[in-house]
Amino acid sequence: MHKGARQLPLRHLSVRLPWHDTGWSGTVCNHPSKNSWCMVLKRIREEREDAAEEVVAGRAWSDLSEAELPACLTERGAVLNARAYSLRSRHPFADSSVETHGHFAENEFRLPPYSVQTIPFRWTRKDDAQTIADELALPFDLAREPELAFETVWINDFVNQQIMLDTFFSALAPEKSLVFLYAKRTPLTDDPRRVLVGVGRITSVGPAQEHAYSDDAAGKLRGLMWERAISHSIRPDGFDGFVLPYQELLALAERDGTIDPSEFVAFAPEEGFQAFSNVAEHVDHDLAIASLLSLADKVRVIAKHIPGAWDRHLEWISERLSGLWHLRGAFPGLGSALHAFEIRYGTLLAMDLAQRYCVDGRWTEDPWALVSRAFDDPTGVLSPQVASQVQPFDGKRLAALPSERLELLKLLSRFSLTIEQASRFFNTEGREGLTDEEILHNPYRLFETDRHRLEAVTIGTIDRGMFPDQSVREAFPLPEISRLEGDQDPRRVRALAVHVLADAEARGHTLLPVDQVLQGIRELELDPPCRPSKDLLPLLDQAMVPEIVDASLSDGTRAWQFGQRHKIDDLLRQQVSRRRKGRRHETGHAWRELVNQSLGDMPNDHDEAAVEELARTEKAAALEELFSARFSLLLGPAGTGKTRLLQMLCDLPEVRGDGILLLAPTGKARVQMQRNIEGLKALTIAQFLLPDRFDPETQQYRLSNAPKVESAGTVIIDEASMVTEDMLAAVFDALKGPKRIILVGDHRQLPPIGAGRPLVDLARELRPWENDREPPFPRVGPGYTELTVHRRQTGKGKAGRDDLLLASWFTDEAPDPGADEIWARMALGETDGHVEVRRWQTDEELKDQLLEALVRHVPEIEHHDDERGFGISLGGEETDKGVFFNSTWAERNRIGSAARCESWQLLTPVRGKGHGVEELNRFLHERFRKQALRFSDGRRPRTPRPNGAERIIYGDKVISTTNKKRSVLGRRKELVSNGEIGIVVGQTKFGKAWDGKTPERLDVEFRTQPGNTFVYWPGDFGDDGTVVLELAYALTVHKSQGSQFDQVFVVIPQPCFILGRELLYTALTRQVDRVVLFVQGQPSDLRAYTSSKYSEVARRYTNLFTAPDMLVDPSGAFLERGLIHRTARGELVRSISEVVVADALSAEGIDYHYEKALRGPDGVERYPDFTAEDPATGVTVYWEHLGMLSDSTYANRWEKKLKWYKEAMDLEPNGPENDKGERLVTSENRLDGAIDSAKIRQQVRDVFEL
Q: Origin, by domain of life (predicted)?
C-alpha cells in the first residue's frame, strides 16, 4: 500500500452488473439482441453488435475467439464464471492524446474463476477524490495532475491514483467483507431503484497493476490500472452466498400470466443510493444489514414458487447478520456527529479510535470518553497521523456543551447518518419547530420530520440504531429518555405507520384502514420485526397525533391519515364549499351568440349541422356557468373544444380586465396552454408557488403562512387530472381573492402521480345528476361543466369515428348498445381508418408490424430502411446533400424541424422489455439513423459524436426529463420543462463552418419553444448520473399525458400488470387523426380492461368529500363503490341502469350472462347487455337497455345494431321469438334520464311469463 494511503476500517463492497439472460456464468446471452436492459450501460450500448452476438448466442466465452467475445466482457458480465479469463485493453487516452499517453501499451488483466473486475469510479473522479481526501486527510494533490491538451474529470497522476485506490481497497478484508451484486435495470421491473442480484463473501483482493508501456516510456507519464480482481464465495451450490433466480422467475412468469415478476425483486436500501452507484463502492455495516434483510424477504417469497436451497440461504443470511450487528456497534455515526459539531476531522478521528479501541466491532471503552481523552491527550490516545490533526480548543467546546446538547450529539452518533443529516439535526436552525428534548424523547422524529428531503433519514436507519445487537444494547444502553419499552413501543409503531402511510400516498391513497396499516408494518423488513395487532390500538391513540389522525370509511371502519393530509383536505373542502355558496357573477351576455361569433357559420351537411348544434348548445351553457361560478370544472376529452371555450371566456372584456392567471401542473402543459390561449402567459403551478409554497429541491408542495398573492380575477388550471391534492391546496392557500377558479381537464385520464384524485372527487361531488339517473344534456350545473361532443376528431358517417367509439369503452360510463360494433369491426379489419389493429406475439413480430405500419401510415417513409423519409417525417429538410434539421429562423420565415416532430408518436406502457420504450427507441434509432450514427462516429465528424447511453446525435427526436433552466444560444437561460419534445438541430460544422474540430455541443429546439435553441454538453450524459435528454421516438403512455399527436402507434402487451382502464383511455385519446394498436394476443382481450375492476382511480382510498365506500372484488382488489356499478350478484357492470336490469332479473330467479358474446350467422360477434337462457321454455332472451336515444350518434349506432338483429338474427325488438327460439327485448330510461326499477321488474315478469 502506498505510504500516503490510509488503512480504512472494514467495509463491504457493491459491484454493478449488466443484466444477463443466463446468469453471469461466462456465456453469451441466449438471446443477446433481446437484452435491452444491459444497454443502459453506455459502454455496452456503444460496443454491442447484435448480429455478431446472435451468431454465438448461448456459447461459453472460453470457446470463443477474442473477436467473438460479447460487449459485456468489460462490464462484469461473467461474475460467476467458473473459468479464469483475461481482459485486454489500452488506456482510453492512448489514441486520442498521443503526446501524453501514446506510450501506453496494451494491458492484460487476468480474472480468476468466480471473480469480478472492480473499479471504484467515484474515487478516481477529481472533484469527488478531493472531497474524500479532505475528509480522510489524504495527501492527494491536484497540483500533481499532469497538464493535458484537453479537459478531463479523471485523476491521471500515478501517485494520486495509488493514494486513492489503495485507500479504497484497504477497507475490503477477505473472508470478512461481503460483496453485493446489483443491477441498474432488469426485465423484472421498471422501478428505478437498484436491484440486488446476489451476495457472497470476498475471498481475495487482487493486487494493483500498473499500465504496460512501450519501450520508449522512460521519463514519461505513468498510470495505474483502476481495476482490481475481487474473488468471491458465490457458487452454484449456494453454500457460501447466492444469486436470486431472476431468470428462472421470468421463465415462470412467461408460463403463468398471473405471476408478476416485480414481486420477487430485492432492492438496495433507499438510503444507499450512493453506496450502490459508480460501478463499485463501499457499503457500510448498516447498509449491509438492510441489504441482507431485503434479500431475506425475497428469498422467503421466492421459496413459495421455485424449489431451491432457500433454508440454507436464510441460514447463511442469519449468520452474516449476526456478525454484522456486532461490527456495526453502537456508534456507527460517530464521525458524522463530530462533523456536525464542526470538528472537520471528525471522520478521521472516529476511524482512528475504532481501529485502536474496537475488537470485531465491540468498543473496549466508551467512545465518547475516548473522544474527550483524545482532546486532552492526542498522542496518548490517537495515532501520530491523526493526533497531529487535533485542535485542543475543540475539546473545550465539547466540554462546554450543555448536557442536553451533548446527549443529542451522542444520540446522533448511534445512527448511520451522513454528515449533512447529522448537521441539520444538531444545528437548531436546520430543524425549525423540533426541540432537542423532542428528539431525545423520540429519536424516530429524525425520520418523521426529515422524510420529505432529497437525502432523507430513513426509517431503517433509525430503527437499526434503536435496536442494535443485544450485547451492544447491554454494553451501551440508550439514555432513559430515549429507551424504548419493547419492539411495539408506540413511538416505533407510529414511525412505522408513517412509513406505511407515506408509501400509500406515493401510490395515490390519502388514507388507509388501520388494519391495512398494521399489516403493512408487519410486512416490513425489520430486525426485530414489529407485529402490532388491533389490541394495541388503545395504547396508540394519544401517541399517533399530530403526525397521524383518525379517519373512517363509510361503514365506520377506522382509518388513519396524516394530520397534514387532514389539514389539506379541510382547506380544499372549505374553499370549494364557500365558493359554491358564494354570490354568482351576473351579466347580460347572449351566450349562444358569443359562441356563434367565435365558431362561425354552421356546417351545410345536415348530419354535421345536427352534431354542431349539440356542440354549440353545450358550449353556450358551459360558458355561462364558467363565467358565473366562483369555482367550476370544465371537463371533457380532447377534441371537444375546451381550449376554444376558454379562449371565449378569456376574451370577455370584464374577464380580461380583471386579469387572468393560467396555471398547469407540468412544464409541457404550461407551454401548450400558453400557445393555445392567445395573449396570455402561463406558469407551472410550481413557478407560481415559488418560493414559499414549493420547494424545488424536494419537489414538495406545501401550505405556508407567507402572504397570499393578489394574482388575477380569473385563475385557470389546465390538465387538472394531473394535479394532486397537495398542488391544489397550495394554490388555494396562495391565492388572494380571485373572482373565479376553473379546473380544466379530462377526469377519465390517468390519475395524478401522488396523493389523491382531486379532479375525480370534485367531478363526483359537483355533477348535476344523481347516481340513479343517466347524465343529462347538456352536462352543466352549479360549478360543473362537461363537454361531450367531439369536434376536432370528426368522422364520416352518422355513427362517429371508430377511435372515439373504442375509447368510450374505457370510461366510467356505459357505451351505447350499438357501441359493441367496434369489436366486430376490429376483429374483421373493417374499421373506418381512424383506428387500426395489428396483432403480434413475439418482440420480432412487433417490430415487423411496426415497420409495416410506419410505411403504410407515415407518407414520408417509403420502405423499412428509409432513413431519408424517416428524417423528413420528423421535420427534416431534404437537400441534394442529405436531410438537414434546422432551427427556427423567424427573420427568414424558416420553420424549424421541431415544428413537425410530433406528427407521429409511438407509445407503450412500460420502459423495459422488448416492447418497452428503451428497446423500441433503440430499434428505431439503429434502423432509421444508421448512416447518421456511422457518420457521427467516424473520423472528424461535422456533427457531435453520440452522447449518453442512447447515443443521441444530430437529428434525433428527444424529450427533456428534467425541469431546469438551460442556456439558449445567444441569450440568457430559459426554462426547459420535463416532457418537452424536440429535435437535435446542431451543433453542425458543414461547409465553411468546418474548423477541423468536431463539435461537442448538442443544440436542441423543442416544439413548444420555437426560436429557442438550448445547449447541452457531453457532461450532461453521465453513465450513473441524471439523464437530461432521452430519445423520444417511443414514450410511455404516462409521459404522453397532456399531449396530442397527428398519429399515434400504441403497443399493448399482454400480460402487463400496469395496464388499466385509465391508461388505455389515455393512450386511445392522444391522436388527432389515427391510432394504430399493436395488440399482443386477440384484440377482443382488451374488453376485459373496460371493467372498473381495472380502474386505477377506483382503487384509491380518498376522503376529500365523502368517506371511502370500498368493496372487495373477487380478485382481491379494493374498489370505491361510488365510482363503480355492482349488481346484487357482485358483477361489475357499466351503469346504474344495467344494475337495475340485472337485479330485476336476479330477483325473479332468472339466470343471465352479462355481455356474453353473440356470434351471428354472418360470423359477426356482438355483445348484448344481458343474455338469459330460460330452461323452462327453451327461449334465449337478448336484453338491450337503451339510454340516451336523444343523442343522435347514440341513436344512429343503435339503429345499425338493430338492423343487424333484424337481418342477421331475424329479431324485432320486443317482438316474437325467431325460429331458433331467440327473442330481443329492449328497455329504456324515463324521459328525465332516470330508470323506473318497478317498471323494469314488471317487464321481466312479462317477458318470462312469471
A: Bacteria
Given a cut of 60, whether residue 324 has pLDDT beyond it is: yes
CA-nearest of 946, 908, 948, 953 to 1066 is: 908
Nearest to 1025 by CA among 74, 132, 279: 279
Q: What is the pLDDT of residue 792?
A: 57
Q: Do domains 601-783 and 809-876+895-989+998-1090 have the same CATH topology?
A: yes
For the segment 566-576, the average pLDDT, to the nearest whole number, is 97
Q: What is the pLDDT of residues 807-839, one digit of tens each?
A: 999 998 888 788 888 998 898 888 999 999 999
Parallel/antiparallel/unpaired status of strands 740-745 and 558-562: unpaired
DSSP structure class, residue 207: P
pLDDT in tens, 616-668: 999 999 999 999 999 999 999 988 999 999 999 999 999 999 999 999 998 88
Q: Which residues pair with 561 in a beta bridge?
A: 549
Q: Where are the domains of the chain?
A: 12-18+76-325, 335-483, 484-582, 601-783, 809-876+895-989+998-1090, 1124-1248
Confidence of residue 761 (pLDDT cuts 50, 70, 90): very high
238: left (phi over 0), alpha (psi -120 to 50) or beta: left
Q: Which long-range contacts (CB under 8 A, 24 or more apart) does 563-571 make?
A: 565/505, 565/510, 565/511, 565/725, 565/755, 567/703, 568/703, 568/725, 568/726, 568/729, 569/510, 569/725, 569/729, 569/1103, 569/1104, 571/703, 571/729, 571/732, 571/733
Predicted confidence (pLDDT) per residue in 261-299, tens digit: 999 999 999 999 999 999 999 999 999 999 999 999 999
Residue 795 scores a pLDDT above 60: no
CA–CA gap between residue 229 and residue 214 (Å, rounded) = 24
Stretch 1225-1243: mean pLDDT: 86
Region of 710 please: left (phi>0), alpha (psi -120 to 50) or beta: beta
How far, CA to CA in Å, does 460 sit from each of 319, 470, 1004? 20, 17, 43
> Phi and psi for 714 in degrees, rounded to 5?
-125, 125
Which helix or strand (DSSP H or E) is residue 878 part of? strand 877-879
In the predicted model, is pLDDT for residue 1024 greater than 70?
Answer: no
Dihedral over Cα of 1201, 1206, 1209, 1215: its sign: positive
CA distance 1001 to 268: 36
Say which CATH architecture domain 484-582 belongs to. Answer: Orthogonal Bundle (1.10)
- Output b/e per residue, 53-90; b: 16+ Cβ within 10 A: beebbeeebeeeeeeebbbbbbbbbbbbbeeebebeee
Rounded to the nearest 10 degrees, the angle between the axes of helix 459-466 and helix 285-302 is 100
Q: Which three cell numbers stand for residue 549?
A: 389522525
Q: Are 463 and 526 in contact (CB under 8 A)?
A: yes
| 3-state helix vs strand vs coil in the chain, percent to 5 | 40, 20, 40
Q: What is the CATH number of domain 809-876+895-989+998-1090?
A: 3.40.50.300
* Distance from C-alpha of 898 to C-alpha of 528, rounded to nearest angstrom: 57
- Predicted confidence (pLDDT) at residue 1016 exceeds the cutoff of 80: yes
Q: Is the pLDDT of residue 1015 over 90?
A: yes
pLDDT at 1123: 72
Domain 1124-1248 has CATH 3.30.390: no
Q: What is the pLDDT of residue 46?
A: 86
CATH topology of domain 601-783: Rossmann fold (3.40.50)
